[in-house]
Amino acid sequence: MPRVGRVILPNYPHHIVQRGHNRQAVFVEQEDYERYLSDLQELKDAFGVKVYAYCLMTNHVHLLLAPDESVAGLSQLMKTLSERMTRYRNRLEGRSGTLWECRFKSSVVQSDAYLLACSRYIELNPVRAKLVCHAAEYPWSSYTQHVGIASRWLDVDPCFDALGGSDEERHERYRGFLNQAASDGEAQLIREALQRGQLTGNARFVEEIERIAGVRIERRGQGRPRLTQEE
């Protein structure tokens, strides 16, 4: 069974990060963030990609995306988003050249165990960076949609639906889940899976993906995030 580089699979969520070239700032003014999100909202349906979570930081973006049967749609979406933002910034600054690193990083995510955990990891980026004290204070992430503060255009995964029987209950359960501190092991697993292009999931999930993709994927110690009735 051959070893694999980056794995992209249909109908599975993927945790994606793309950084500015040489870590340069990509978003400077409010309009920069608004433009990127407007493009993401427009293009996701055009390329058959579901958007479950996002966070736009100054020099990089985190996205939780799931392509449909045509896996090429995910790469096409990222390419088009990058090209549009590059043209916009170059025109604004009277320059030419690249804005982004040429290759985005991605990790296939185990839906039932890690989709909500990845959403939490993504939406807590501004808190970990000490830009805000709480995720609700940061306007450029999906958190406000997940808890009903902002109008929703995100796609809804069954994991989110399962949080409660009504929108209000789901919003409250998700708010509690995000406020609960993630374990160091969970955050490390998500971070390292993304950096190394591995899978975000448990051993059974790794075996499942190996069968589907026909490749050997490196294993590592893995745990499962908890979501109890009290969280």
Q: What would you say this structure looks like, in words?
A:
By secondary structure, the chain is an alpha+beta fold. The protein has one domain (14-213): 2-Layer Sandwich (Alpha-Beta Plaits). It is built from nine helices and four strands. It has helices at residues 30-46, 72-93, 111-123, 125-128, 143-146, 158-161, 167-179, 184-196, 203-213; strands spanning 14-19, 49-56, 60-67, 105-108. The chain has a four-stranded antiparallel sheet with strand order 2-3-1-4, with helices on both faces. Strand 2 and strand 3 form a beta hairpin. The termini are far apart. The model is unreliable at 220-231 (pLDDT under 50). Residues 9-125 form the Transposase IS200-like domain. It holds the Pfam family Y1_Tnp. InterPro entries: Transposase_17, Transposase_17_sf. This is Transposase. One of its GO terms (molecular function) is transposase activity.
What layout of secondary structure does this protein have?
Blueprint: E1 14-19, H1 30-46, E2 49-56, E3 60-67, H2 72-93, E4 105-108, H3 111-123, H4 125-128, H5 143-146, H6 158-161, H7 167-179, H8 184-196, H9 203-213
Antiparallel strand pairs: 1-3, 1-4, 2-3
Helix pairs in contact: 1-2
Pfam families: Y1_Tnp
Protein name: Transposase
Organism: Pseudomonas nicosulfuronedens
